[in-house]
Amino acid sequence: MSIALYRKYRPGKFAEVEGQNHIKTTLQNELESDCVSHAYMFSGPRGTGKTTMARLLAKAVNCIERKKDESEPCGKCESCLEIAQGRSIDIVEIDAASQTGVDNVRENIIQNAKYTPTRRKYKVFIIDEIHMLSTSAFNALLKTLEEPPKHAIFILATTELHKVPDTIISRCQRFDFRKVRMEELMRRLGFIIRSENKDVDREVVELVAARSEGCIRDAESLLEQIFSMGDKKITIEQARLVIPYSDFHYIFEFATFLKNRQSQEAVDFINRIMFEGVDLERFADDIIEGLRKIMILKLNGKLSEYSFDLQKDQEMKLLELSQSIDIQRLVFMIEVFLKKKGEFYLSPIVQLPLELAVIEICQTSDEVDDTNATGSVKKENIVKNEEKKIEKQSEPNALKEMEIEKKDLPSVMLVTFELVKEKWNDILAKVKLYNHTLSSFLTINKPIQVKNDIIQLGVSYPFHKERINEIKNKLAIENILEEILGKKMKIECIVIERKEEPDYVKEDKKIESLAREFGGIITK
Q1: Nearest Cα to 14, choosing from 2, 1, 25?
Q2: Which pLDDT score, from 0 to 100, does residue 274 have?
Q3: pTM of whole model > 0.85?
Q4: CATH 1.10.8.60 fits 182-242, yes or no
């Protein structure tokens, strides 16, 4: 059985680790000065080298041939070979995800740590996914970390540091691993390609590095998939058979259509790439990331500190595009795609959410409402569409009819708080037909304000807010609001304390209480 590339080329020395220089330097200084800590916390994204660094540290502290002022393990002595082959009885690796209970911690860690190493200087415990331990298991481990045996070193690794108790973190030296930059990933991939005696186009290496998003293990796994094609010479066309990829040129072309408000071209583009086999959900992620990059370029003119997956020529193209798009419009475009991305699973037509996003972006006015903190844009399409219809009508009678309709528009476009209160029971009745429980939430929690086409709903409990904000529930409520009020409205839930309830809400509750006491119901 062949060995996976990420295992075959796992670094055997600190010098072979790409990136994480801030961690390597500190650990090597500690090793050279013989001031190794009793506990370490390695946190960061998956596949960035946490376990590899833990094994290197375990190998270095127990290396027989390592000299006093050196930090690198020799890699050749009996101890180094045992650890590299995973057969050292003094190196204990534990997967906390599968051993979460307190009994496992007591048996595998606490009891084991009491005994001195069998053959080496230190007994090293490498505990992966430490955040998965139960509360009782953390409490049991805490005592050992507070008063550790002199011969024991604990290395805890996690991808979710926020789930680890502060009491545990405070007993450890903490190191935060970062995603690996583009040039570092490509250097690592180039080393593996040369070692495997393969001929791979540079464009393929860039594709693999970009798709791995700063994760070395993912990059090595993707490279292995490409190697499995069996050819000595691997081109970009072959690589794309293995790795689904939305080309940068796709993103740039699509963003240009959006900038120029070319809705027809953008919709045609979406359908074309769909028939070419591009994953549209993945493309939605890519266009969001592309617009984010343009936004960052708009802010500071460079991406090097925020992105690792663009070449210089690509960055220059985005910089040029950013200069012709307003920052507030960029924010609006990103928000639209984020919203539509959540509707993929609801749509019977896979490309429809993206098509709707194109229409909304290309046909919305550039005028921005400064009172809206999210940067939402005022929509004047109703008036504009009516004016276009009037221009198309040549008969005087038809023109008069459109003018009459236009006069009625202000009443449709203006939704006041008083109107919402007046129509609230009608809204509740419609919602009840859709979902009885949702209707009860809206009965308990009343509207408190109407602002900028948003109905603010005061809710007493976060749970109610979560249920109302579920995508399918929110869409249903907003559709009903449009049907009853004659205008597209948004609903926004605000958790308020009971003492902050408006007076009319308190009065309504008193009336409801009296009605229940005497066996009556409120009909209006």
Answers
A1: 25
A2: 87
A3: no
A4: yes
